[in-house]
Amino acid sequence: xxxxxxxxxxxxxxxxxxxxxxxxxxxxxxxxxxxxxxxxxxxxxxxxxxxxxxxxxxxxxxxxxxxxxxxxxxxxxxxxxxxxxxxxxxxxxxxxxxxxxxxxxxxxxxxxxxxxxxxxxxxxxxxxxxxxxxxxxxxxxxxxxxxxxxxxxxxxxxxxxxxxxxxxxxxxxxxxxxxxxxxxxxxxxxxxxxxxxxxxxxxxx
Length: 205
Ligand SMILES: [Zn+2]
Description:
By secondary structure, this protein is of the alpha+beta class. It is 48% helix and 11% strand. It has one domain (3-199). The protein contains six helices and four strands, in the order αββββααααα. The protein has a four-stranded mixed β-sheet. Helix 1 packs antiparallel against helix 5 (169-185). The protein binds zinc ion (ZN). Zinc ion (ZN) binds next to helix 2 and helix 3.
């Protein structure tokens, strides 16, 4: 393991220790108002085996249900094709929609989708979530040119969402500080992903 891989590992271990156990596996955004945002075009996504990942909108308009939640889920469909399900994306600001897409894509890029699911809310699961968050913010920085202002929009939407779902301050802080650290200090997403795959023995395909 390289030194940079070690430091990455340490960062995540620290992040994981302070994320409470009820963090869910999907990124969700809640909006109190029924305001509809324009749904963004999803980014290109390819998994670690070089397969193209498709996006599928699964909006179920459940009116009267408050708050509306925007969520993503990375999986394989019935035919075994890698997919990302996008639900209620119009409930989240565009910056956060873009973050959710890339977070879910990261679960494909790192091979999470095809690996055995770690126990829900256990340390390994939380680490996977931190890694996906990290990759998502790196891609927004490098591909979409997000600067401090863009970052702040993502962080604000993330906080807003977690607050509405009842997360305590410490979880919001920890999650935001993880993406801030990645955004400010990490190299390109591709290199980071390669490091993760290498550690998992998935680099050669
Ligand atoms: Zn996730």
